[in-house]
Each structure stands twice: as C-alpha cells, then as structure tokens.
C-alpha cells in the first residue's frame, strides 16, 4: 500500500510507479470514483469509442473541397471531443 501526502491546497501527487501501474503518461487523464466507506477507485481514463465510429465521419462535410492537414486535425479533434 502507498501513502501519499495531501498539500495545503488539497492536492496529492501520484508517484511514478503508480502512474506506470495505471499506464498513464503526462497529459493523460485519470478517473476517480467515490466508493462507500470513504474509499476511492483510481483508473486511467480511456476513450470508449471504436475506430469504426470514425468511418464516414467527414462524408458530406467538405463540399468536395480539399482540406489541409491542419483542417483535418481540427475536424478530428472536434469529433473526439464530442464523444467524451
């Protein structure tokens, strides 16, 4: 069992070995679920979509225009943000 210290701001830092165990990297998100008895469950937050959800995503949105890589990335980012 690991013991963590709570800062004056109410924050805790998960040590590297715990983050590795969760499989999270800098910038990733974790989810916390409150359980009975003052316990919590910490898990890596993973997108729940499937790659097949993206099939046909751009159909009809380009008006037969070519998109730049930046425009494609923006559309993709907007689509994944809407799924969360």
From TrEMBL:
Residues 1-47 form the SpoVT-AbrB domain. The keyword DNA-binding applies. InterPro entries: SpoVT-AbrB_dom (IPR007159), SpoVT-AbrB_sf (IPR037914). Gene3D superfamilies: 2.10.260.10. Keywords: DNA-binding. The keyword DNA-binding applies. PROSITE patterns: SPOVT_ABRB. GO terms for molecular function: DNA binding. SUPFAM superfamilies: AbrB/MazE/MraZ-like. SMART domains: SpoVT_AbrB. It comes from the Bacteria. This is AbrB/MazE/SpoVT family DNA-binding domain-containing protein. It comes from Bradyrhizobium agreste. The lineage of its organism: Bacteria, Pseudomonadati, Pseudomonadota, Alphaproteobacteria, Hyphomicrobiales.
